Amino acid sequence: MKFRHKSALMMFILGSFVILLLTVTYYFFSRNSAIEHAQNTDINLAKDSAHEINQLLMEKGRVAVTITTAPVLTSALMASNSELANLDDAERHERIDELNAQWMAAGSVADPVVRSALENPVADYLRAQQAAIPGEYGELFVTDRYGVLVAATGKLTTLAHAHKYWWRAGYHEGEGRIFFDDRGYDTSVEGYVLGVVVPVRQGAEIIGMLKCNLNISEALTTAISSPDRNQIDDIKIVRTGGLVVLEEGTEPLSTSIPGTLVDEINTWLSGSLLIRGDGGEELYVYAPVSITRGSDKYAFGGSPTSIDHTRGNADEGWYIIGSVPMAQVTEATRRTVRLLIIVGISFALVMALVALLAGRALAQPITALTEQSLKIGIGNFDAEVDIQSKDELGNLAESFNIMVHNLRETMISRDLLIAEAAEREQAERDLLINNQRWKQAQTVAKIGNWEFSPRTNTFWGSEEAFRIYGIELDPEKNPDQLLPIELVETCIPERERVHQALVDLIQKNKPYNLEYDVIRTINDIRITVNSIAERVTAEDGTLVRISGTIQDITARRQERHRREDLQAQLNQAQKMESVGRLAGGIAHDFNNMLGVILGHTEMALGQVNPDEPLFEGLLEIQSAATRSKDLTQQMLAFARKQTITPLVLDLNETVENMLKMLRRLIGEDIHLAWLPGSGVWPVKLDPSQIDQLLANLCVNARDAIEGVGKVIIETENITFDQ
Fold first, then answer.
1. Do 379 and 460 share a domain, yes or no?
2. Going by C-beta distance under 8 Å and a sequence separation of 6 or more, which residues neighbour residue 660?
3. Burial, 236: exposed, middle or buried (Cβ in 10 Å; 0-12, 13-18, 19+)?
4. Distance CA 348, CA 292 (A)
5. From CA 623, how far away is CA 606, in angstroms rounded?
6. Which of 490, 557, 501 is nearest to 531 (CA)?
């Protein structure tokens, strides 16, 4: 192996090892940084979502408090309280139990007991609140300070409510606070419902309780799906027990989070956790919804089960939990590593190439001097040595070149100079002719070439390219034939698709070979073009421009469609010809067999007494064989393009002759009813066609009937206007 080859190989191995070491170091450092950044960013996003939920729930509570300030509501509650306040505790409990029993025994909303709560000014006021914000509220109802229902928007299960967990939580031993009832799945609305319980106050005294069942799923989804949180792959609201309250695309309360994450969220702190599952490692971030932890002003909770709901809250709070696949977190790092590997290998190859060239450079001067000296010896005075070094070899090469130059100058004559000038003139003429031929070839082929500069966002096109687009340029105003790319794309109906393909070629080096329509600017004529382009890069790989061609293929596409239509017609004709030949062959053979059947039937009829039962059966065989022969004649007529033989027929008589055969054809379980019309007009038709039509209809009817059925054949005269 030569020295220059060895040095090149060593440089490549050394460069590859260094690049590999740097890449591995960068990967682990960058991966840890990406995870730390994702943790900090996503935790903040989870906190933002938790804050949004806090604000949403407090807003719902404030709205409910506002509802309780209506005079019509407080007046009704004071009146209800006064009726029960005059009784002692035992009498009051007995009265409430009696009212509750009457309510539960009521069969419908028409019952006077129920109507008294559903049809009063307070109930009307609550329904007005429902109508003011459509879809916001489910049930709205009010109880007095003893838990007795005063008004509601719909019939409830019970009249008494003071014993229920939500009433006691909102009453809070007389101090009162807003209670959010995480009811879970409400059977009355068949969906997830969150209740808001608000004490109704008269001054500092609690005179009743208002409960609003909110259809809050949509509002919660909006709160956690803000566009600035799209970098979290999956975000959800979760109870501290692990049950998922809300997740986009999933039924509420139907899924749970991993058990290891449940242990983390019971601390009421924000944080993150890496969990490896079947789908790979995922980064989970979590933040508590602080209002659900409870306070003197707010309470949150529920009951796992009740009369009208399931999967309720068991003294749990809410957390916002988001998850991002680790593959997504480290995607940028992995892309950078791939790029570093490619760049590193390229750099190692460049180093090897440099070493190879350096080795060659050390031996090249002496070799060059030897080769050029031999050329001078045979009379080639154009030989020169290109050595730029400042050492002894450089001085020798310089002296050698001066000698060769002096020898060449003495040998050059006037004739050679004239010949050189003539060659240059001929080259210019050839260049002009070739340019004209090139333009003519583009015109004949309807193909032009174009270039696009991403740096200046300008489009250059040949004359034929602008003619295809129907764009006229003023040579004086635009001698460089440059236009903004947006101006050229205005004549392309599918400009978005074409422009995206150009962007993909620039950014991703995707192949650019498109067929699209162009509406020529000059005359609004729609044509079809095919455009092909590729990247033109500098030696360092930097994109310089996009170079492409565009060709008018309108006529070619029309001709292609015409050939496809003709080919389809030819294929269909060949199929029909094959079917006709097959039908003709089968009909011919079947007709021969029918001839044998008819012959033997006639012979048997001559030997059987007409009074015998067999005689009638033979007549049926003869009739069926004759009709079958007529059918084969139709098949032969189709196959050989022969005409059929229509006759003037009595339709009733023709059908009656077919009845026995049709009854046997459809079987004993199906009754065939024959209803001939009176005065039916005669028809002109081939008899075998009638037989075939009736047989096909009856067979189809038989196949459609399961078990016992009935088929009716009826004739009558009908006149059609058109």
1. no
2. 620
3. buried
4. 61
5. 16
6. 501
Query: Is residue 559, in this structure, part of any structural domain at all?
Result: no
**Cα–Cα dist 490/519, whole Å:** 9
d(CA 498, CA 490): 11
Q: Give the position of tokens 């422009």.
A: 499
Residue 476 lies in a domain: yes
Instruction: State how far the alpha carbon of 610 is from the alpha carbons of 487, 600, 613, 615, 621, in Å.
Output: 98, 17, 8, 5, 15
Q: Would you say 321 and 286 are in contact if contact means Cβ atoms under 8 Å apart?
A: yes
To the nearest 10°, the Cα dihedral for 293, 295, 298, 302? 50
Confidence at residue 207, expressed as pLDDT on a 0 to 100 scale: 94
pLDDT tens digits, 527-565:
999 999 999 999 888 899 999 999 999 888 888 888 988
Q: How far apart are CA 155 and CA 141, in angstroms?
A: 10
HEC secondary structure over 86-122 = CCCHHHHHHHHHHHHHHHHHCCCCCCHHHHHHHCCHH
- Both 455 and 547 in a single domain? yes
Residue 668 CA to its chain's centroid (Å): 56
- Asked if the structure places residue 722 within a domain, the reply is yes
Of 675, 666, 654, 673, residue with least CA distance to 698? 666
Q: Which residue has the tokens 């031996």?
A: 363
The C-alpha angle 130, 132, 137, rounded to 5 degrees, equals 30
Q: Which helix (H) or strand (E) holds 309?
A: strand 309-310
Quote the CA–CA distance of 70 and 78 in Å, as a whole number. Answer: 13
Residue 94 to residue 88: CA distance in whole angstroms: 10
- Token pair of 607 as six digits: 């030997």
In a domain, 452, yes or no: yes
Amino acid identity of 433? I
Among 364, 392, 411, give the residue marking a domain's end. 411
- Which of 366, 396, 411 corresponds to the end of one domain? 411
Task: Report in angstroms the alpha-carbon separations of 317 from 84, 177, 257, 312.
Answer: 37, 17, 15, 12
Residue 641 has pLDDT above 50, yes or no: no
Inter-residue contact 64 to 56 (CB < 8 Å): no
Say how many Å lie between the first and final Cα of the chain, rounded. 98
Q: Tell me the average pLDDT of the chain.
A: 83
Domain enclosing residue 673, as ranges: 645-722
Closest CA to 667 of 629, 711, 625: 711
User: How many domains in the chain?
Assistant: 4
Q: How far apart are alpha carbons 586 and 293 in whole angstroms?
A: 88
Q: What are phi and psi of 669, to 5 degrees?
A: -75, -10
Q: What does R_g of the chain's alpha carbons equal in angstroms?
A: 48
Q: What is the 3-state secondary structure (H, E, C) of 569-604?
A: HHHHHHHHHHHHHHHHHHHHHHHHHHHHHHHHHHHH
**Is the full-model pTM beyond 0.85?**
no
State the Cα–Cα distance between residues 206 and 76, nearest whole angstrom. 14
Cβ-based burial of 164 (10 A; exposed 0-12, middle 13-18, buried ≥19): buried
Q: Which two tokens stand for residue 124?
A: 């009307």
Beta pairing class for 670-675 and 709-714: parallel
Query: Where is pLDDT greater, at 127 or 721?
Result: 127
Using alpha carbons only, give the angle 92, 94, 100 rounded to the nearest 5 degrees. Answer: 100
Give the pair of three-digit tokens for residue 435: 């340019």
Contacts for 75 with CB less than 8 Å, ≥ 6 apart: none
pLDDT digits (tens, 9 = 90+) for 359-394: 666 556 666 666 666 766 666 666 666 666 666 666
> Residue 634 pLDDT more than 60?
no
- Check: CB of residue 647 under 8 Å from CB of residue 687: yes
Reduced DSSP (H G I as helix, E B as strand, rest coil) percent helix, strand, coil of the chain, to 5: 55, 20, 25
